[in-house]
Write a structure and sequence with these properties.
By secondary structure, this protein is mainly alpha-helical. It is built from 3 helices and no strands.
């Protein structure tokens, strides 16, 4: 897929997260950190040129596990929102 599309979706998702009243600030910070860590690690390892097959596999596994952990945390801590 196009990396710019992925970046756009990431920014859009984080914007929706931070504009919601369903979570506390600390939960939003944790979810943001969990979702942003993996793409940041790919960039840092890619720039340094130290990407072997093991590193790629670990980052791919983390790319699935970290957002899933963030989603589980958001689901468990969601509070009801008021509808106008």
């Amino acid at each position: 897929m196009d990396p710019f599309l992925g970046l756009l979706v990431l920014i859009l998702g984080l914007g929706l997260l931070w504009s919601s009243d369903a979570w506390t600030r600390s939960t939003k910070l944790l979810a943001t950190a969990l979702v942003v860590l993996d793409p940041l690690a790919f960039v840092l390892f890619g720039v340094s040129g130290r990407m072997g097959p093991i590193e790629v596999l670990v980052l791919l596994a983390a790319g699935v596990a970290l957002p899933v952990a963030a989603a589980i945390r958001l689901i468990r801590t969601a509070r009801p929102t008021r509808t106008p």
